[in-house]
């Protein structure tokens, strides 16, 4: 008689685009709170946009040995990350919650992880003061330089 023990070893593998910004609440986070997105959709709409790049296949200047970037979302599809089932996030209008920010004010960003993986850095972008909420969201009204890199 033979006794065999099978042992399986699980190792955390790198995962992409798994996290979201609850503070200050993004459009996707607010939609998730309202039950319009499930958690997977929330996380995939928040990350991996690789701004200010406009093309795919680019090496990360901070980590050139990392994987090359995916295609960033096109103009008018930024909030949805150009992914289906959340096109409503791209709707222009004044109905979106806004966060007032004064010049020189300390603005705290919080990132929530939903998968175990290495993170090289975070870049947070905000719309500029002259942003037109009646126009589709595109990189131009977003500050080209990150308001925070860490």
Automatic annotation (TrEMBL):
<dbReference type="Pfam" id="PF03067">
    <property type="entry name" value="LPMO_10"/>
</dbReference>
<dbReference type="InterPro" id="IPR004302">
    <property type="entry name" value="Cellulose/chitin-bd_N"/>
</dbReference>
<dbReference type="InterPro" id="IPR051024">
    <property type="entry name" value="GlcNAc_Chitin_IntDeg"/>
</dbReference>
<protein>
    <submittedName>
        <fullName>GlcNAc-binding protein A</fullName>
    </submittedName>
</protein>
<feature type="domain" description="Chitin-binding type-4">
    <location>
        <begin position="18"/>
        <end position="138"/>
    </location>
</feature>
<dbReference type="InterPro" id="IPR014756">
    <property type="entry name" value="Ig_E-set"/>
</dbReference>
<keyword id="KW-0732">Signal</keyword>
């Amino acid at each position: 008689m033979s006794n065999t023990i099978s042992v399986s070893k699980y190792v955390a593998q790198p995962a992409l685009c798994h996290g979201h910004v609850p503070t200050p609440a993004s459009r996707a986070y607010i939609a998730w709170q309202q039950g319009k997105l499930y958690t997977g959709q929330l996380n995939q709409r928040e990350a991996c946009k690789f701004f200010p790049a406009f093309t795919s296949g680019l090496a990360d200047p901070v980590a050139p040995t990392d994987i090359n970037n995916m295609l960033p979302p096109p103009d008018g599809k930024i909030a949805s990350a150009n992914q289906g089932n959340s096109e409503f996030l791209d709707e222009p209008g004044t109905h979106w919650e806004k966060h007032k920010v004064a010049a020189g004010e300390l603005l705290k960003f919080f990132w929530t992880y939903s998968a175990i993986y290495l993170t090289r850095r975070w870049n947070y972008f905000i719309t500029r003061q002259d942003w037109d909420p009646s126009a589709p969201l595109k990189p131009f009204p977003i500050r080209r330089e990150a308001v925070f890199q860490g």
